[in-house]
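hey so i finally got around to running the thing on that chain from the lab meeting. sorry it took forever, my laptop kept dying and i had to restart like 3 times. anyway pasting the input first so we r on the same page abt which one it is
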Amino acid sequence: MEKSYFATLLALIAHQIDAAYWREWDPFHLPGGVQGYLLFNLLALPVLLLGYRHVVLGSPQARIYARICAALGIATFLIHGGFAAAGERSFHLPLSVAIIAACLLAGSWLGWRSRRTASV
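ok and heres what got predicted. didnt touch it at all, straight out
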């Protein structure tokens, strides 16, 4: 699960960097604009990093954190797919699209690994 968690975490962090360029707080109507966006990241990133620690150490909580991270990766793709279908013009550059696709692929891989690990 460690590799799939790392891949998902990397894709999510890369997306958040890209999201700052695209001013992601605007389509989400986040209160506080960039300050709300930064606050979200200051709250979410420690949870994801703590989860990676649990996965690396093989703690009993590892699967829970893995499922949270996987869900965020898949949700990132679904949310941006919905925005694109609704005509949102941000995140249209090739690398932005590739990063969002990587969130889906890595998140799906992690979700599969977290279930597989649970049954072993």
